[in-house]
Amino acid sequence: MKLLIVEDHSILNVALKNGLQAFAVEEIQTATTSSAAMQIFRSFDPDVALLDIDLKAGPTGIDVAHAMRRLKPNIAIAFFTSLADPRLVKSSLPALPEGSVIISKNEIKDLSALFAQIEGLVNGTLDFTDLNNQPVLMNLTQSEFEIIRLVSEGLSNAEIANRRVTTIKSTENAIARLNKKLGIPNSSESNQRVLLTQHYLKLTGKN
Amino acid sequence: MNGFTELKDVKTKIDLSLYYLFIPLAIFFGLFLEGFSPESPRETSLWIIAKSIGFAGCYLFWLFVSVLTAHSSRAGISLWKIMLIGSMGGIIQTLVLETALWLFLLEDSVPLIARVSGTCVFATVWLPAQCIATGGLRNYKKNLKEVDFEIAQLEDINIAGRKLVEIEKNFVEKKILGMVGETKIALNSLLEDSLALSKESQLPEITRSFANNQLRSLIKNISVLNSGEPQKLSLIRQVTLFILNLSNVLITSIKAQPLRPIWFLGTLLPTIALPLSRFPDYFVGLQTFAVIAFTLTAIQLLSFRFQRTFKKNQLLVTFLTTCVLCFLPMVLIDLIPGIEHNLRRSVAFALCICLITVFGYIAQAGLIQKSTLLTSRQEVLTENRVKSSTLNKEIARVTKMWAQHIHGNLQARLQASVLMLEIAQKNDDQVSIKRSIDSIRELIADLDSDLDKATESSLSLEIRKRSDLWAGIVEISVSIAPSLQELTDPCVLDIAECIGEAITNSVRHGSATRIDVDIVQVGPNILGVVTDNGSGLKTNRAGYGSQVFDSATAKRWTLTVDPVSQVTRLNLIFSLSEMRTNW
User: How much is the pTM?
Assistant: First the structure.
């Protein structure tokens, strides 16, 4: 099995490479950017790609995965991310490539578990239902994902409304719905915006 | 503004207050002349006083209700609310009048219950009818010549608004030059000006209210005048009245119909209702009031025309016209054989109307004068704005000059400082404003600033930065006209941002595998064309991308999909001359 790891965090990249080499992996290559990943992909021809979704500026791991699929339709793709839902990075992302899985960084306790899932994916033996490896689609709409992200960036309601080409009133209503869905209390002792941002950071694995 | 505030606002106008003061006096004078009888001076005096007080109370209350309801109709309040306000006003008004009469123990030939119920019907129909008429007029605005006046004013407001936006646009530039104070003064002045114009735009509504007041007060006046004298008119007199009425209806219709069809109906309704209260012979009353109501409507329409170009000598013309128009019908009635001649009543009636009309004109003239003053002030302000605009152009020129020498980080720092300044200004934080201005001055003045040494950013470099991000994922071909490759204009960042966003959209939403970017200069504009082989997009869909394009190109962008080749083509037109100062 030839594995390509695309992870913008260099230390994690090296750690994964070194750790997974102990398992039955023929060869492992790593890349920290999307362009480097595509360059390596062409020469390396991996069987499976393990991609982080949030690659900072420019394309996301999902964009890279789609590009890889176009060039090699049978490549197995796994997203290794701390995000509770990919839409937390950008609400207008394309859908995940067919047959791809999301492996949560928060739920993987050791590398053997990670390798087991990668191996299962490649061999077609991975039980999606049991392992709960389907994308974690939270009960939020696309616009709510966008709003929670913008709130966490510190934008005011007016700025959010302006950015989303909508009204302040509808933004306020959307935030109220968001708070309700996420169970954020409305009390005078706490700031809902701060709680919402904290929640976002937790969902994206940054807190 | 609610009806109460509006009423307060109207009352603050001295000219209007005078008008309202003189109206009851005019009524009193008319009644005195009509009711004077040397045989029983005490009773006559009581009768006159009672009627005057009652009527004055009615009138003032009616004024309040009419302003309130006129506002309601203008504000687009629902019909049932207008009906409710009008009906309540009418009932209270009737009670005031009848209570005043009852207090002086005056007898009437018509039973009290008939008077009260009849007047109630009249008042409850009349006020809502007027309101509906006023509200209905709004729908005919395009056809009304007089509304051109309003539209012109609204246009003035728009011009003021546009200039306000223009000044605001230049506000940032002014701030950079430390000219916050001057800009604030200009903005405040413009704001005041806009507010003044907004108020002024209600002028026609106020004059409409005047007209309504006159008509209403006169019909009421006649009601009082005739209340003690039920007429027994012959058939000839009824026919004459009918012909007179018909001719008046026709004359009024000719004048009013194209302009105020609903008002015409508003006049008709109370004409039918009022005689119920005062005339045992309903049909006679109907004819009489039809004559009066429609004659007065004609006078009002004439008065509206005079208001447009009011001059002092027109006062005399108005007076005489009103005298003839009001006096003649009454004299004609009295001259019919078999009818008791009552010249005194005719004179009283005519004088009443004349005085009310003349005082109305004086008051309206005050408003016109005020309007003229405002116009003059507007001209002065416009002149000042032109001067200010020249100054702004000079500031823009200097700013542009700076912009051409400032790139990269220095520009970013300046932008950040200006943003900081804007926030401080919004919060009215004087300390932060001063600090921001100092910071900007320091930034510009400091020749050793490391920002001066910042590397310049060219168009080709900025676009390459963004296209390289997608290397390997999509094939991107960038072609930039040689003359633009090393462009270091501040607009470079905007162009690059748009191209970057276009690439992202093509890949994510169109699944494109090949994107071609062409950038050429066409006259003063830069044309950016992004084509891809993707599946196409919903054209001009609102989103972050379209917002970026709108902002950078001033909405001069198009997105098309070739139905045959399925090639998606995004055209972006950047104005170089505008963008040089857009920093």
Answer: 0.42
